Amino acid sequence: MAESTGIAGLEDDFQGGKQRSLWVDAMERLIRNRAAMVGLFISVLLVITALIGPYIAPHDYIKTNIANIAATPNATNWFGTDLIGRDIFSRILHSVRTAIFVVVVVITISTILGIILGAAAAYLGKWVDDGIMRLTDIILAFPDLLLVAFISLTIRQPFVNWLGTVYQQTQWEILRDTLFLDYLIVFGALALVSWPGYARLIRGQILSLREQDFIRAQVALGVPDRTIMFRHLVPNSIAPVIVSMSIGIGGIILLESSLSFLGFGIQPPGASWGSMVTENLFEWRTHPHLVLMPGLTLALAVIGFNFLGDGLNDALNPRQIRR
Amino acid sequence: MFVYTLRRLILAIPVLFAVLFITFTLGFYGPGDPLEIFYNEELVSDPEITQRLRELHGLDRPFWEQFVDYFTGLLEGDWGDSISSGRPVWPSFAASMPISAQLGLAAAVVLVVLGIPLGALAAVKQNTWVDYLIVFVSIVVRSVPVFVLGPMLLIVLVLWLSIMNVPIGWKGIFHTNAILPVLLMAAGPLLVVVRQTRVGVIEVLSENYIRTARAKGMRERFVVWRHVLKNALTPVFTTMGLIMSGLVTGAFFVELIFGIPGFAGLGIEAFQARDYPVILGVTIIGAAIIIISNLLVDLGYGLLDPRIRYE
Amino acid sequence: MPEPVLSIRALETHLYSREGTIRPVNGVSFDIQQGETLGIVGESGSGKTMTALSIMGLIPKNLGGVVGGSVLLDGEDLAQMSDSEVRRRRSTKMGMIFQDPATSLNPTMKVGPQIAETMKTHLGINDTTARNRTIELLDRVGIPSPEGRYNNYPFQFSGGMRQRVMIAIALSCDPLLLIADEPTTALDVTIQAQLLDFVREIKEERGMSVMWITHDLGVVAELCDKVAVMYAGSIVEKASVDDVFARPKHRYTSMLLNSMPSIAERTAGRLMSIKGLPPNLANLREGCPFAVRCSAPVDRCTEERPTLLPMGTEHSAACWNPVAETAGNGKM
Asked: Which pLDDT value is given to residue C4?
């Protein structure tokens, strides 16, 4: 058509706007979002700290020093020391590792569980769908902290017994490590309360996508189920999952700290942000820095993740936020 | 509307029952032999005494029988006996629940009075500094856990600024001591309310019927009040479960920090003392609160959206 | 000639987007006399709706707005007025109905009050009077048992009925001008015909002027006195209905006419289609925006933008190579 006009230079009128992919677009929006960039910076810093923190810690995080208790922040102990003279800064570096470790494992487990169960519910329908959805109803019916606390309290003893039996057969020393046990229980309990959110999200996404015309068109064209699933359904549901993962990170850190606060998290001498605040909760009048230092850093970490999550949400849902 | 209400009620019952069953089962198998927790080891090591104790507490009976027993007990208002005090659980529940309920209600009022207008304002001023500031502050507030925010506020207000005395203890909801606890409880779910209101209002503002209302020449204030808000609050409503969950979680910490003898504080003590009958009761009631509020949400939908009402 | 009810001169509207400023209305001028119906025709994205929204002052501030020209309604320039002055003229001097009756009414509010609140806002009447007038209006727009229908919700109405309710809202304060933005597009053909008859009837009854936006030339032939054809934000041809159908001057108009199916010419062969897409409004090049799709472009078309030139009595077109008289409406 354009050629038939015989007039040069008109063809590119047809191209309209540049073709850009969703991801490039989203990336650009994210980079222009200042709060999200601050969030990204904090998040990256935290991950690096988790990786190298224990090696750069200025002091031993479990070494007590009775001669130097409850010191306020100074040149040697940057964040001060606690009631038995341990260096707070070093302990915080360690709790970052704990927190990030918990976040990575829990998010991974619950996302995988959520995707599998959510997709199964949407795809198989009938009683599978009913069963899985009722299960999420039940889990979501509990206040999450209450359920996590209840689970970690009740499964501990049976779990210890079971690991004892396994130990007798395998002689694996790790099974008798209480820190390892703490981790397993915390992972299990947190993943248990987190997966229903992902499962519902995925199920909802797949169900609503399936009703959309472009998927129906594929079905009508006889495109195989697998192709539809992996070329259309999964890529189109992935953005909300990423958003919800990034928003979930802050929540998991909070939940893990709350758990430690209630005494069901990583037990001493393992370092956890939550327990650092709680151990000293009632010292706020006499030694405010014992609460302030771990509290402020914890808050900063969660703020960082939440800003990043919020920015991703804006970037990946252009329709919802920026018109 | 009646059929709709009835259907929702019937759907909620199995969930409540499942919650009951699961908590009881975990509580039954979880802690190991309850006798070991009840009594000290010397008593338990004597087989004869152990046997008598089991019979006394009905622990020699099979699981199902005990569950039915517990369940029928609940229906009669009997929540079992506390391990630490030996007294029935229910009276202490009955004494502490009103306190937590008052706190929760006051926090809910704060959420509505503060969260919805802020969310709506952010939406109307979308992408201006007002919007950014509101979203920024609510993310920050949400990100600081209550057990950090609480002590921090105390340090600032009591130690540094000395504008109040230490607000510890319960002197009724209208006492100034209640201000901080209520605000702290509302802090967690505030972001949810602000964000949902904002998204809801933004979405509704782009609806065709809002353009119609403007084309009619309605004042902008009327457009927002009469046409936008009612339609925009539905998404806020959907997150009621999440909000209630946040309030319950908040109550745990607030009651501990401020020494308030409420229901959640009771729960914390029970968790720390491994007092199973109390823990069971607290967990079941906690879940019941959320199930009931979700039920109320469903019923509220019917009121908000005529299409559901006439279904 | 009497003063026109609506007189638009060099209207320019900008929308701001990431890709730059879009000019959906780019120097539009036209008049509508009292009791006259002007049809605005064009493809999607040609700026018809934006022209209407610009007149009504309904373009959201954060998206853009009118940047130039004048909109004289009943002798007053809306483009120079404050927001609240324009607001007070909506419903009382100009009413508007929209394309999609399914979403244009508030789903959670009863239909009656949606009409009544308009009158309460502008006419300062009390609840009872507003209610009674609303019921009269519902009756007038052809809603059976209006008393009972007053308390119904929009979802209890059919599409045609909802559009009648929209008309009742638009007419409630007796405006001089009714702007209709493709109000029949979403309706069945039979319902559409009823609605057109009704609008014509009510227009004559009240001596109202109508600006009817559509892409359906059949509707134009049936309803309108004059036609303005829009392309890429500008009017490319203005004439009476008879002239446009019998003697289109602009190549675009004639191609539009040729792409219209007609029962009488069923056997005449394939319909003409206009190839290509309307141009990117963020980035208009020099010359005629239609040149690239035109069936008979000349060199001048890419160099200089054509302006509306008189092509007969009250007939003008913006084309450097207008259709010759003899070519008429024949299939090309």
From this structure: 87
Which whole number is the average pLDDT over B228-253?
80
Is B109 in contact with B173 (CB distance < 8 Å)? no
To the nearest whole angstrom, how far is the Cα of B70 from the nearest Cα of chain A? 18
pLDDT in tens, C176-235: 999 998 888 878 888 888 888 888 888 888 889 999 998 888 888 888 999 999 988 889
Q: Give the per-residue pLDDT at C131.
A: 92
- Region A230-250: mean pLDDT is 78
CA pair distance A184, A178, nearest whole angstrom: 10
Segments of chain B assigned E as strands: none
* Tokens found for residue C159: 């599409």
Alpha carbons A34 and C179: distance in angstroms, whole number: 44
Query: Cβ–Cβ of C90/B215 closer than 8 Å?
Result: yes
Task: Please report how the helices A144-154 and A178-210 are oriented relative to each other, as an axis angle in degrees rounded to 10.
Answer: 140
B8 contact partners, CB below 8 Å, separation of at least 6 = B295, B298, B299
Q: Quote the pLDDT of residue C135.
A: 92
Q: Which of B207, B215, B216 sits opposite C103 (nearest CB)?
A: B207
Residues A46 and A296: their CA atoms lie apart, in Å, by 14
Interface of B with A in 24-83 (CB under 8 A): 26-27, 29-32
What are the two backbone dihedrals, phi and then psi, of residue C93, each rounded to the nearest 5 degrees? -115, -30
Q: Report whether pLDDT(A8) > 60.
A: no
CA distances from C26 to A311, B240, C78, C289 (A): 36, 49, 18, 12
Give B 209-268 residues with CB within 8 A of chain A: 241, 244-245, 248-249, 252-253, 257, 267-268
Backbone angles phi, psi at C152, to 5 degrees: -90, 160
Query: Nearest 5°: CA angle at A317, between A311 and A320?
Result: 105
Q: Inform me whether the C-beta atom of residue A168 falls under 8 Å from chain C C-beta atoms.
A: no
Residue whose entry in the numeric block shows the structure tokens 């019952």? B13
pLDDT at B282 (0 to 100): 86
The number of angstroms, rounded, from the C-alpha of A201 to the middle of its chain's C-alpha atoms is: 16
Any chains having at least 3 CB pairs less than 8 A from chain A are B, C
- Closest approach of B227 to chain C, Cα-based (Å): 7
Give yes or no for residue A11 having a pLDDT over 60.
Answer: no
Region C29-49 average pLDDT? 88
Q: Name every chain A residue with its beta carbon within 8 A of the beta carbon of B19.
A: 138, 141-142
- CB-CB neighbors (< 8 A) of A257 in chain B: 145, 147
Distance from CA of B306 to the nearest CA of C (A): 6
- Do residues A260 and A273 touch, judged by C-beta distance below 8 A? yes
| B214: closest chain C residue by CA | C58
From the number of C-beta atoms within 10 Å of its C-beta (0-12, 13-18, 19+), residue B117 rates as: middle
**Per-residue confidence band for A320, with pLDDT thresholds at 50, 70 and 90:** very low
- Whether A6 shows a pLDDT value over 70: the answer reads no
What confidence tier does C246 reach under pLDDT thresholds 50, 70, 90? confident
Interface A-C, measured as beta-carbon pairs within 8 A, has a size of 33
